[in-house]
Amino acid sequence: MKTLTLAGQTVPTIGIGTWHMGDQPRLRETEIAAICAGVAAGARVIDTAEMYGSGRSEDLVGEALSSLDRQQLFLISKVLPENASRDRMQTSLEASLKRLRTDYLDLYLYHWRGSVPLAETVDELQRLQDQGLIKAWGVSNFDIADLQELWSLPNGPHAQANEDLYHLGSRGIDYAVLPWQREHQLPLIAYSPIAQGDAWGQHLTTNPVVKQIAAQHGVSIYQVLLAWVIRDPQVLAIPQTSSVAHMQQNIAAMDLTLSDAELAALDEQYPRPTRKEPLDVI
């Protein structure tokens, strides 16, 4: 099982994303079962946010946590830009903690940049860490200029992660963001690592090279896509699924290592960027 160090803890390189989970009451038991199956299969990281379903995802995760060992989990949530101020962030965090039925987060992320000055947001994140409500903090949807600005602040280098969109069909951050994060030893959390099932027309699941690699290894196409994302030892992938079987397959992708020849073949199909591209977000 591949691992990386995130906020001082060793965690497996595939975790559990929860965007869109908790929105449909009829799926609640199935979604909780999927989260529990992921943990049973070896996942430790569970990623959620106050934005997801206006708190419904956090509430779902909180119910799942009631049957799990909280001390063995690495729990991430995120604060909305409009709540990322000195006056509002602690209230927002405490509401998240209540929904999650826990008294601390392992990592609290600034979900994306808004109108609050970055220095104010960072200082408040650091204060909440010093207070013990969060063990660490980081950012999300940050591009290279955002990261450079973050690092220029007194508390900026205390950040422990950046979470960006990253998958085989969306490689913009390979040009500048990922090299910068490697240099500064800042792990990447890759959201939508399997492209939401080809939601944006990259045709990853029907690509003949992807299909051939999957067939050669006797694994699913999605496991190949996940193995590609975590080929970098400083990247954590957080795929989302409400299916127990798919969840187990996602976690098992940590055991799949693609050869140099396979990685080169995938690069030919989906080339590394040769210039700066706008940051992909969804």
TrEMBL record:
This is NADP-dependent oxidoreductase domain-containing protein. InterPro entries: AKR, NAD(P)_OxRdtase_dom_sf, NADP_OxRdtase_dom. Residues 14-268 form the NADP-dependent oxidoreductase domain. It comes from the Bacteria. It comes from Levilactobacillus spicheri. CDD domains: AKR_YeaE.
